[in-house]
């Protein structure tokens, strides 16, 4: 259960608390980790088993009707910050049967006819599952705010609505892990340029990415407001420096392990007579 | 692209063709593979990259609106034959964002009010995705037949309905990979006993498993009928010996790679002016 090269608990170090300033976070740093890329990659591989084991216990408990817990990982970031890599390299390490992924793009006409949380509620993880939101209801106070996609008073209303919503989820047994992957403007430029350069990456590029990039400072301000108003004890935010992909993956893996350890899932007891079943099986 | 230790193409070797007899298949064999467990596990790890690359191309093409293809892996087997291991160790090797898993248990009351294909149609993979059915519409002619869950003429009707259904899916661009994992009765007994012995495996055990096990011969006969009537050129069955888990995983991985290579997904062309975007990005 040791965290090896972690010198401080990433759950503490990266948590958004009182007085947090996004502008004070260095996207290139590796806070709390005493090692480089190689050590980080080794630890990521080593901790996969722990994560997988916890996930299986969680799943087992819910199948036996004994546990009601679930985990919800909310991923937010500017384009190219590495959400997909987290899904692939961190979440991809556990049994796919226990994971529910949801990507939230621009809302459809039908979705726009409902409250902004409508489409999100439908994708919450069932008990026993790890849910992953690739973007989320926070888009409605991020691009929603920057692009003025809703009236100002509606945007204002949403922060409180989000807190109420998440409080309800937490009360029903879901551990919410909110993560902003934080890259620098320069790193984003390099990554987008690489997408343009490589024919096998070009499909990930969207000309709209540059338009959003031009609004970088407005987005950072919108994130700061999100942190000020929605980093609450039941559902704190974590800002993960993400210029180094290996660090971001390692940190998110540790946050997930923490959330699962907190739920403390146990192998369920048999709801049948084990010795009797052994006899029946032996005779069959 | 070499198949290394494969001496024959598993797609050919394991395919159910004319005159196939399930009783002639040795569940402990490793047909077409010239190597043992170690070599098999090494090859599984090595081929993961090829599978992941093909999956990403398929996904990319569909995102760009250029391709309509998808792959549907149908997994059928007696209990404990290793369906879960295939999902975890083979399918788990590709990006979870490109996979759609569906498990079919006993039908709900609502599902029973509809035709047996109703619930299955709703879970077909979208273009660009790999869909995995953990059990499927074949249960309706397997347990359905053995347990007489429907009138005999309805069971008879279903074989033709399945062929029509799958022909339609294939025509719309889906490669259907149908796999029966074939374990021996003895191996099943050992695996179920292990589930009873180990507290961390007990949740997977169901007393009903022994009841089904007692009907082994009837199930094998029902499978034989499935093969006789639904192994068609557009959607052939493959019977994969599964007493050795490593072999079954390796074989299914190869079947998936074959299906994807057959679709031949290409990186999509940019639908924007790459040089112009490089200039816009550089200026931003």
TrEMBL record, chains A, B:
InterPro entries: P-loop_NTPase (IPR027417), Polyphosphate_phosphotransfera (IPR016898), PPK2-rel_1 (IPR022300), PPK2-related (IPR022488). Keywords: Kinase, Transferase. Pfam families: PPK2 (PF03976). Residues 48-263 form the Polyphosphate kinase-2-related domain. NCBIfam families: PPK2_rel_1. This is Polyphosphate kinase-2-related domain-containing protein. It comes from Microbacterium soli.
């Amino acid at each position: 259960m040791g965290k090896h090269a972690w010198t401080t608990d990433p759950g503490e170090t990266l948590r958004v608390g009182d007085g947090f300033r996004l502008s004070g976070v260095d996207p290139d740093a590796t806070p709390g980790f005493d090692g480089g890329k190689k050590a980080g990659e080794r630890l990521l591989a080593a901790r996969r088993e722990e994560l997988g084991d916890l996930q299986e216990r969680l799943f087992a408990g819910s199948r036996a009707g004994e546990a009601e817990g679930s985990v919800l990982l909310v991923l937010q970031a500017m384009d190219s910050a590495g959400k997909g890599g987290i899904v692939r390299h961190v979440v991809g390490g556990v049994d796919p049967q226990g994971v529910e992924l949801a990507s939230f793009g621009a809302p459809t006409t039908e979705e726009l006819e409902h409250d902004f949380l409508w489409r999100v509620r439908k994708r919450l993880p069932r008990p026993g599952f790890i849910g992953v939101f690739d973007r989320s209801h926070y888009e409605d106070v991020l691009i929603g705010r920057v692009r003025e996609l809703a009236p100002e008073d509606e945007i204002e209303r949403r922060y409180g609505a989000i807190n109420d919503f998440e409080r309800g989820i937490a009360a029903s047994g879901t551990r919410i892990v909110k993560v902003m992957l934080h890259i620098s403007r320069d790193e984003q430029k390099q990554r987008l340029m690489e997408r343009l350069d490589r024919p096998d990456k070009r499909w990930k590029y969207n000309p709209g990415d540059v338009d959003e990039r031009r609004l970088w400072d407005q987005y950072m301000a919108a994130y700061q407001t999100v942190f000020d108003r929605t980093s609450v004890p039941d559902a704190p935010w974590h800002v993960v420096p993400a210029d180094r992909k290996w660090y971001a993956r390692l940190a998110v893996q540790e946050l997930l392990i923490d959330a699962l350890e907190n739920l403390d899932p146990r192998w369920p007891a048999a709801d049948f007579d084990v010795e009797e079943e052994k006899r029946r099986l032996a005779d069959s």
